[in-house]
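WARN no homologs supplied; continuing
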Amino acid sequence: LKSPREERKTAAKAILATPRRVAPRLVEQALLVSEELIRVAILWHEKWHGGLEEASRLYFGDSDVEGMLAILRPLHAELDAGPNTLREAAFQQAFGRDLADASRCLDEYEQAADDLKKLPPLTKAQANAVARRQERRRNTRRSNGGSTSRGGDDWDDDDDDNDTTNATTTQQRQRGDDDDDDT
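OK structure emitted
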């Protein structure tokens, strides 16, 4: 019932539906025993080691930030709920502070990602805000990015006091998403 995969959850619920109608208390007790056996059989050290390994593979190997967070958030939630055994208490004593800091970093990352989604797209850039060296530039030329005409003038003279330039939005692919078009 606690599988991250939806099809497994659905299958488990279907399997337990009939016995639950006949003996609901017995099913609840069996689920409690099963949960406790799993909890004491898989130590927090093992859970965190496996979770960090999987989260790292998702982030670095697959560039899957959401998948990484889906692995780490339940681990942090379990840690936040507090220890139930002496081994869990020892784990929390040894790693609790570092993992709490890591959880705060995840919170800050998610907040920053949400804030970035709310920003309007950049369409104009003021030269002096883009680079301090540009404050001194005068009588320079800059390319009109995206211009494809061969006969026309693809350059702007920058001898006026207009320090604003248009920004061209582009579709960018992440590194590692290369197709084998080059070969």
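The chain is about 60% helix and 10% strand.
OK
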